[in-house]
Amino acid sequence: MKVLDCETIDSTYESLEQILGAERSQLESVFESVDVESFYEENRSYPHPPESLIFSEVRKVATLPAFYDRTYWFHLTRTAPSNNFELGILPLGQYLDSIWSFLFQLARKRVSPEEWDKFRRKMGPHHHAGLYWMKAKDAMHWGPYALLTRDHAFKSEEIGNHDYLGAPEIVEDICICFSERYEFDLLGAFMRKTRPCIVKFFDGPRGDCVPTAVYHLYNSYRGNGCSTQCNTCYDGEGTPVTPERIMKVEFPKYRKRRRKRVSADAASWDEHIKQLWDVV
């Protein structure tokens, strides 16, 4: 069985050797010979993206037709360390009640069950309440989602992505609204009770994944850093990732967020969230 596994640079090279029939030295020779930035400066009308450009050059040294059986994906979240995903990775609509139940356990000394239920129904006029309802009501936002290249999990700021290892977006939305109303740092409590988590699972082959993996290696070899074009995403479109497709659940080392004193003022909260950061 041939699999595309972008967990590490080495595993990506090994996968592409099996899929394309091109050794690492051959791929690196191609990467050395092509300067993407210079090419586009000289060929401004070239109609294809850089990953297609590099892949077209790699195909010249490949001996196999790029067929493979499985793609490995990396789902990012922050969860309790006891979570082993025995039910699989559920779309948002199927675990929303669990999120609220978990957060209530952290907030129960501040609010009664009745107050919590009222807050859930009416989170207030805050911008993050609008973001919450957009995600909660529209199945288009339910995922589950995942990345092709694990390395991107730790470089959210570099690629302009939400930091899902820091906290799920919808958890931040709930916590910000709650903290503004009750002056309690619910997000901080959530951070203390959870850990960053990466769930590795498999799905079938997809046409854009091999060129993306090749371009990821190109950028790594050239020292260009990460970009959105070095990665592609999985969207379950509301369908769970079943337990038998999960290969590994890991809780990687990841520095906790630095936090400032919580303010109930909305503007202060926006500034507070901007100053939350994570590094490897």
Features of the shown structure:
11% strand, two-stranded antiparallel ribbon, 6 strands
List the helices and strands and how they pair.
Blueprint: E1 3-4, H1 9-20, H2 24-33, H3 36-42, H4 50-58, E2 70-79, H5 92-107, H6 113-121, H7 127-137, E3 145-147, H8 156-159, H9 169-182, H10 186-193, E4 195-203, H11 209-222, E5 233-235, E6 246-250, H12 266-274
Parallel strand pairs: 1-2
Antiparallel strand pairs: 2-4, 3-5, 4-6
Helix pairs in contact: 1-11, 4-11, 7-9
Task: Explain how this protein is built.
The chain has 280 residues and is α+β, with helices and mostly antiparallel strands. 44% of the residues lie in helices and 11% in strands. The chain contains twelve helices and six strands. Strands 1-2-4-6 form a four-stranded mixed β-sheet. The protein has a two-stranded antiparallel ribbon with strand order 3-5. The two termini are 33 Å apart.
